[in-house]
Fold Extracellular matrix glycoprotein pherophorin-V11.
Amino acid sequence: MRLPILGTLILAASLLAVSEAQTFGSGLFPNFPFVACQRSQSAYKVASTVTSGGSNTYCFTLRVSVPDNCASYCCQDADLRKFELNVYRKCDISGIKLRATLDGAPAKTVPTIVEALDGKNDSTILRLPALGLNQSTADGVELCITLGPNSNGEGCLTLEELCVPPEGFPAGTCTTALFDTQNDCCPLSRVTVPPPSPPPSPPPPAGCSMCAYFTVVQTVPVAVPFTFSQADCDSFAATVSSGMDGLSIGAVVRPFELQLCSGSVVKVCGGLDYSGPADLLSATLENLASFWLEQALGGGTCPAYLLGQTISVNIGGDGDPINPPPSCGVSVTKAAACSLPTAADGPACDCNSRQRATPFAMVPVYTEKKGRFANTNMYCFDFLTIAPEFPNGPCGSTTTLAKVEFWVDDAYRRNLTSVGVQPSDATRMTWLAPSFATSGDLTLKVSNLNWSLSQARGARICMDLDKSVPMADFCLGKVPGHCWAALFDTSLKCCPLYIAST
Ligand SMILES: *[C@@H]1O[C@H](CO)[C@@H](O)[C@H](O)[C@H]1NC(C)=O
Ligand SMILES: *[C@@H]1O[C@H](CO)[C@@H](O)[C@H](O)[C@H]1NC(C)=O
Ligand SMILES: *[C@@H]1O[C@H](CO)[C@@H](O)[C@H](O)[C@H]1NC(C)=O
Ligand SMILES: *[C@@H]1O[C@H](CO)[C@@H](O)[C@H](O)[C@H]1NC(C)=O
């Protein structure tokens, strides 16, 4: 029984092939509008949006706009006589009722669907001639076409059924052509009924606006207040962003980004979606804040550049960096007050050792560099001038930095190869043999400086130390890694103490 059925199918298929071969179109002009004419550079076009007026009525809006720098007939003089659409051959059904209006008034003729004789196989067009428009009258004209079925109910009633879409475009996209009386110009437009705009999608959950603040304030007046650099800000922003992203209890709905980078405040904000209990969030953020504070302190103990200052890490809503308002019901504050050491913490001295006593100060950060020899490291201390606490006092009015003494373990005196001195007006560093006070005085003396204010501003003293001696061992004091120096005036009565760390 299988074979006869197969035979019938083959016969049906070949009949279909024969019927499909009954086509038309010379193929001379294979593309819409299937005649020789100027497709671009014209004063006319059809607006891309087609409105659907219901009852299978589709309205096209005509537009006039002369392209810049186009003096051709099509741009300047052509009238607008005929409207065409590229349509499917299957829509060429006898008896269908097509109607057209121009700005609501019946058009002079009815649209017709015809074969395109010089198109390719099956090319078909819908045509509405006798528009009678020109450049002064066409702009904004609404041309509506109603697609009605024939008495058998057949017909293409939607643009999806009617229009051959340009290659790659979805069903319902139509190509129009607008002809002048001479059929010289046929500007094309691609038009469609836009899909209904989707209902506005619910806005993404805003979550709570959450900010992390890093602040530094002076607890006592300090000679060289700390300021956040751009690099510090960027680094904190990255820390906060990754910390928030890593939260296991809430979702970041707006990425955390740097919002403020002033010298004393870093502000990093984002959005956090959290619906759990406030105390869980609070505990989590407290941990984060403590961790960030520790990082800001460079690992736990206060670095020299933060002495006399309080650094804090606060998390909460948008507002006061020190006391942020709660957000998601929570705000946390963590702070470390880095107290300025007292004179008792420093080397013994018989002079005014208060910071800011004289206009001379040491930068609270020293730098480590490659040493002068293969087995040495170099540590450099920088100097600057400041406003002294009592400018007219005996120390405040001094104008010479006579010598600098570092508080060091002189057991390592043989391990220091040399001391470099470079006031700001010197082009290079002068290397000197180290000079220590009497053994046991624990003092490295850099004497005979006699720097003026301007020489001290940007001056540098470097130590070339054997690599086997860590700087934290060489420098003495309660806090490992802090190096103390006394900056003497000529009278030797003023010797403000400064501390530097890496
Ligand atoms: C028309 O279709 C036939 C059969 O598919 C094909 O051989 C012919 O090349 C086509 N003509 C044009 C103009 O595309
Ligand atoms: C445009 O058409 C209107 C109305 O038919 C006519 O009055 C006008 O003179 C025409 N303008 C041009 C530039 O042909
Ligand atoms: C320091 O110098 C002394 C004397 O040259 C030497 O014996 C010692 O190994 C050096 N290093 C340390 C860490 O003491
Ligand atoms: C620095 O000043 C002191 C005291 O006035 C003087 O003895 C010394 O020679 C000066 N040193 C230099 C390098 O100018």
User: Anything to note?
Assistant: The longest helix spans residues 2-21. Residues 1-22 have pLDDT under 50 and may be disordered.
